[in-house]
Amino acid sequence: MPGLVHVTTTINGNQTDFLCEPRQSLLECLRDVVGMTGSKEGCNDGNCGACTVNLNGRIVTSCLVLGVEAQGAEVNTIEGVASAEGLHPIQQSFLENAALQCGICTPGFIVAAKALLEAEPDADEARIRHWLAGNLCRCTGYDKIVRAVIDAGERMRA
Amino acid sequence: MTTANQVLSEVEFEVVGTRPVRPDGVDKVTGRAQYGADLDLTGMLQARVLRSPHAHARIRSIDTSQAEALDGVRAVVTAADLPLAALSREDLGNDYNRFKFLSDNFLASDKALYRGHAVAAVAADNAHIAEAALSLISVDYEVLEPVIDVRAAMQDGAPLLHDDLIHTSAMGEVSDKPSNVASYMKFEKGDTAAGFANSDVIVEREFTTASVHQGYIEPHNATAHWRADGQINVWCSTQGAFVVRANTADVLRVDVSNVRVTPMEIGGGFGGKVTFYLEPVAALLSRKAGAPVQLLMTRTEVFEGSGPAPGSWMRVKMGANSAGKITAAEIELAFEAGAYPGSPVMQGATCAFACYELENGTIEGYDVVVNKPKTAAYRAPGSPQAAFGVEQVVDEVCQKLGVDPVEFRLNNAVTEGSRKVEGPVFQKIGLVECLEAARNHEHYRTPLAGPNRGRGIAAGFWMNRGFHSSVNMTVNPDGTVNLIEGSVDIGGSRASIAQQAAETLGISYEEIKPQVVDTDSIGFTMVTGGSRTTFATGWAAILAAEDVKSQMVERAASIWDVPAEEVEYDDGVIRHKSEELSFTFKDLARQLYTTGGGITGTASLDPTGEGNSFGVHLVDVEVDPETGKTEILRYTAIQDAGKAVHPSYVEGQIQGGAVQGIGWALNEEYYFSDNGQMMNSSFLDYRMPTSLDLPMIDTVIVEVANPGHPYGVRGVGEVPIVPPLAAVANAVGHATDQRLTNLPITPGSILEATL
C-alpha cells in the first residue's frame, strides 16, 4: 500500500490541502478526496472530456493528471464558474439555448468553452467546433452547444 | 431562434409550445446535479466486476479465496450467491429459461457467453483494492469456439450458446432441434409473387449492419444497501426505477416492497439504461459486507458488458410499375440478440415497410443468439437497420424509374386508414406532411453542385409507446404546485411535463415544481423510453391537474355555500356562474388549509392512443476520392411531433438522433477479432462523432396533432435515428455511383468500392 502524499493546491481560488495516493488521478482526488463531484468521469482515459478542468490556465482532462501534480497549481473546476452574483454568461446561455439534455457532459463543455471565450470571445463556429472536439456529447448532436457558445461570446463581448 | 429551425404549427397554446428554462437546469450547468457516481454514503465500499476474457467458455470452477484474503476486501460474490444456484430446473418449471437467462447475465453460472460477461465481483475499501483483488480470483475456463456473426450462428453445426435450451419457435411451432435461432416470424399481406410479376422494375439487395453502442457518456452505476432488516435500497442510473425494482426483486427472490429504487440523475441512456447489470450484484455484495456498496462500470466494461444494438443481415426486394407505384416488397431480417434471446427484430419487421402503402408484402424475421453482449434497446430499436436496407432499395427503384425520390415517396406514402403488412391500420399520421415539408424546403430546392458530392433522402417510422405513468400534484399555499413524477428526466422532460400541467391549470410554468422521486414515493411508472414520457407522463400530469381543478371547484363551492355545478374553472380562475364570486388559483390556494385542508390531485394511467411518428431526412455529402472520407455538408431533419411541447428539446431530440445515426452510418462499429474479442473498446477507437465532424443540424417540426392526446402530442425521441443511416448511404451512393450496403461506410469500404 503506497503512502499518502500531502498536496497543497488552489482550487477555484481557495487554498486546499488534501492527502492522496501517488496513483490517484486529479479527477479521483477532486471527486473522492476533496468531495467536488462536478467534474464527471466518462472514460478515465482522456477521450470524452467530461472531467475537463483548468490547470494553470490550460484545460486538461483531469483523469490524465495525477493528483500530486496539483501541488502548487491553480485548479479551476465547474464549481468555480458561477459566483455569488449568479451564473456565468456561458451557463446562462447553455440554459436558454437548451444546450444540454442529460447534462453529464455539460460541466466539461462549460469549463472548456470558458477557457476559449476568455481568450477569444469572438471565436466563430469553426473555431468553436475545433476547440470543443475533445468533449463528447451523445445527446445533442452539438448544434445547440455550438450555438450556446456563440451566444455566450456575444454576451461576454457586450 | 434562427430560421435553421422551423416549427410549422397548426394550434397554439399558452404554455405548451413555449421554450422555458428547464427546472433542473441550474444544477446541471453548475455541476451540482447528483448523478449515481456522485453519491457518497457513510461507510460505503467500492466494488469491481471480474469479466470473462473469452467470448465463449464453460466455467468449470471459480476460486475466490485469495481475493477474499486481500487486505481491504470486504466481500466477493459469484453466481453461487444468486438464488438461481439453489433452484433446480424442476423448481422453476416453465420459468427456467427466462429466470436463468435473467440471472446469468448478472453473474454467469455455467457458461460465459461473451467477452465481458460478469463472473464475479469484489467489494473493498476502495476501487483500487477491489481491482487488485480481481486478479486474485482464479477461474477455470474450458474455452469453446465462439460464433459472432448472425448468419454463421444460423447454420447447422454452428457452436450452440445454450446447449439444449433454445429451440426455434416459429408461428406457434417449436422445433425439436436445439438451435441459436430463438424465434422466427412471418407476416404476409396480399400476393407478393403476383405483385412482383406486375412490376416494371425490381431491385433486390442484401445488407449488413455492425453492432453499435448507445454511447451514453455516463457509465452504468449502482449503489445498494441491503439493510439488516432486509430492506434493500438502491440508487442508480436508470431509465426506469420500477423496472430495476421488479427485476432486482425477481432475480434476488425478494418481494418488491423490500426494494426501494431511487433514480439518480441519468447521464444518457438511449434505451441502453432500460436494461441493467449492476444492482443485484451490488446488493449481494452489500449483504455479505454489511455496508453500502457502490459499483461503477469503466468505459471498457460499458462497451464489453452492456448492451449494444444488434448487428444485422437483411435481404430486401421491391418491385414498382412505371406509374411509380410499388407493386410488392419483401424483407428478410436476421438480428443478433447477443448472448440471450430478445433482439428487436419484431420491431424491425413492423417498421420496415411502415412508410409505404403496400398491397402485397412479405416480412420474415429471425432472432439469433451470438457470442456478444445481450443486445439492449437503442433508440427506435430495430427500425434504423430495417430502414438502412429498405430506404436504399427505394432510392434505387427511383433511380431505375427516373423519378424524384420525394415524389415517389409521396406517391406511395401511408395515410390515415392505410393497413400495415402485419395488420394494424394507421390513424391520423403526418408522413405526407413531412414529405411535403421536404419538397418545399430550401435545402431540397437548392441543387447540389460540385464533384464527388451527393444528396440522400430517407424516411423513417417509429410506432411510439403509451404505457403506465403516475403523477401527484399538491397545491402549495402560495399558489405553486409540487408535481411528483416517476419518469426519469433524460433530456428535459421535467419541463415538458410541467408545461402540460401549467397549461391545464391555467397558471404559469414557473409555478409548477417538478420532482422525480423513488419507487416508494409515486405510483407505478414505466421507463423513460419508447418516446412515451412527454406523451404518457404528460397525460398523467394533465389528469392530475384536472383532479386538482375539480377539487378546487368543490372547495370554492363549499366556501361560497353554493352547489359545485354552479362553479367553473376558467383558465386559472374559479368562478361562480353569478360572476360575482371568484377566486384566482392563488387566492384559493392561500385559503386551503383553513377551509378543509390541502389539495392533492393524482393520476395513474396506461394511455393508448400514442400517435405514430414519421421523419424525413435530407443530407448532402462530399466524398474525398483519394481518402474515401465522407464529409457531411448539410443536414436537414423533418419530423411530425404532433405538438412540440418544448420545441427546443424536440429539436434537440431530432438533432441528437440524427447525429447518432450519422455515427452509425459512417464510423461506429464493434470491431471483433475472430475469437470474439472487441478490439476497439475505448472512445478513442470506437469513434463517435465530435463537434468537428458535423455541420449544424437543421430541423423542421411538422405538427399534425395526435388525436390520442389532449394537446396533440406524439413521442419524438426515437424516430430521428431511423432515416440517417440510409440517407447518408444514399448520399454516398450518389456521390460515388456505388451502392454501399454494409455498415459502417468507412473510408476503407468506400475506397474498396470505388478504386
Q: What are the segments of chain A in which pLDDT stays under 50 over at least 5 consecutive residues?
A: none
What is the overall shape of chain A?
globular
Output the structural class of chain A.
alpha+beta
Give the helix level of chain A as a range of percent.
Answer: 25-40%
Query: Could you tell me the strand content of chain B as a percent range?
Result: 25-35%
Instruction: Give, in spatial order, the strands making up the sheet with the most strands of chain B.
Output: 4-6-2-16-13-14-15
With helices defined by DSSP (H or I, 4 residues minimum), what is the helix count of chain A? 5
Average pLDDT rating of chain A: 97
The span between the termini of chain A is 54 Å
Helix content of chain B: 25-40%
Q: How big is the Rg of chain A? A: 16 Å
Helix/strand order of chain A, N-terminal first: EEHEEEHHHH
Strand order of the largest sheet of chain A: 2-1-5-3-4
Task: Characterize the quaternary organization of these chains.
Answer: heterodimer
Name the structural class of chain B: alpha+beta
Mean pLDDT of chain B: 97
Low-confidence stretches of chain B: none
Major sheet characteristics of chain B: 7 strands, mixed
Description:
The complex is a heterodimer of chains A (158) and B (755). Chain A is of the alpha+beta class and 158 residues long. Chain A has helices at residues 26-34, 89-96, 106-119, 125-131, 143-157; strands spanning 5-11, 14-20, 52-55, 58-61, 74-76. In chain A, strand 3 and strand 4 form a beta hairpin. In chain A, helix 2 (89-96) packs across helix 5. Chain A is globular and about 50 Å long. Chain A starts with a strand and ends with a helix. With 755 residues, chain B is of the alpha+beta class. Helix content of chain B is 28%, strand content 26%. Chain B has 21 helices and 31 strands. In chain B, the strands form seven sheets. In chain B, strands 4-6-2-16-13-14-15 form a seven-stranded mixed β-sheet, sandwiched between helices. Chain B has a seven-stranded mixed β-sheet with strand order 9-8-10-20-19-18-11. In chain B, helix 16 (493-505) runs parallel beside helix 17. The longest helix of chain B has 28 residues, at 533-560. Classes of the chains: A alpha+beta (158), B alpha+beta (755). Chains A and B meet through helix 2, helix 3, helix 4 and helix 5 of A and helix 1 and helix 19 of B.
